[in-house]
């Protein structure tokens, strides 16, 4: 007797298996979608940052104005242009009634890292305190606007 052989079963050809990764085309489509979303969101985000810098400058000018008013109450006059805002932190030479420092920390720069402009007597009042905005030129709109105490 011959050895029993199992019957041969013909198998249909298999389709090639696909790995679990992504094709280059799928990756490119996702990158384009992310780029479009970033293009829509980024301008609005940076616009908000600009608006917040203007608000920060207004708040700092308000705080400095209050310190200048306290200085005037003690000294009888606002610091001169030559003494500047530093008179809020460091006692001027001939200041007998100085009760400072009038700020808890050093005089801050404006949000664009430039010093605030101070003039006393001012053109718009007893003193002028202002920032020239992002471009440092003054005037303008948006972040380039002059932010002032008057």
UniProtKB/TrEMBL annotation:
State the superkingdom: Bacteria
Name of the coding gene: gspG
Q: What is this protein called?
A: Type II secretion system core protein G
Keyword list, A-Z: Cell inner membrane, Cell membrane, Membrane, Methylation, Transmembrane, Transmembrane helix
Q: Which InterPro entries match?
A: Bac_GSPG_pilin (IPR000983), N_methyl_site (IPR012902), Pilin-like (IPR045584), T2SS_protein-GspG_C (IPR013545), Type2_sec_GspG (IPR010054)
Q: Which GO terms describe its biological process?
A: protein secretion by the type II secretion system
Q: Known SUPFAM superfamilies for this protein? A: Pili subunits
Where is the protein localized? Answer: Cell inner membrane
Looking at the record, the residues that make up the Type II secretion system protein GspG C-terminal domain are 45-150
Q: Which residues cross the membrane?
A: 21-42
Q: Which PROSITE patterns match?
A: PROKAR_NTER_METHYL (PS00409)
Q: According to the UniProt record, where is the region Disordered?
A: 129-150
Cellular component GO terms held in the UniProt record: plasma membrane; type II protein secretion system complex
Q: Which Pfam families match?
A: N_methyl (PF07963), T2SSG (PF08334)
Where does the UniProt entry say this protein principally localizes? membrane
UniProt similarity note: Belongs to the GSP G family.
Note the PANTHER family from the entry. GENERAL SECRETION PATHWAY PROTEIN G, TYPE II SECRETION SYSTEM CORE PROTEIN G
Membrane topology reported for the UniProt record: Single-pass membrane protein
Instruction: List, alphabetically, the Gene3D superfamilies matched.
Output: Glycoprotein, Type 4 Pilin
């Amino acid at each position: 007797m011959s050895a029993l052989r199992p019957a041969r079963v013909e198998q249909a050809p298999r389709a090639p298996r696909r790995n679990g990764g992504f094709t280059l085309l799928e990756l490119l489509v996702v990158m384009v979608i992310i780029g479009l979303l970033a293009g829509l969101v980024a301008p609005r985000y940076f616009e908000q940052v600009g608006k917040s810098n203007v608000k920060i400058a207004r708040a700092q000018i308000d705080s400095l104005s209050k310190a200048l008013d306290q200085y005037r109450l003690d000294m009888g006059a606002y610091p001169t242009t030559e003494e500047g805002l530093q008179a809020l932190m460091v006692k001027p030479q001939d200041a007998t009634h100085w009760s400072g420092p009038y700020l808890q920390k050093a005089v801050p720069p404006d949000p664009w890292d430039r010093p605030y402009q101070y003039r006393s007597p001012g053109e718009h009042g007893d003193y002028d305190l202002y920032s020239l905005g992002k471009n440092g030129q003054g005037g303008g709109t948006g972040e380039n606007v002059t932010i002032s105490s008057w």
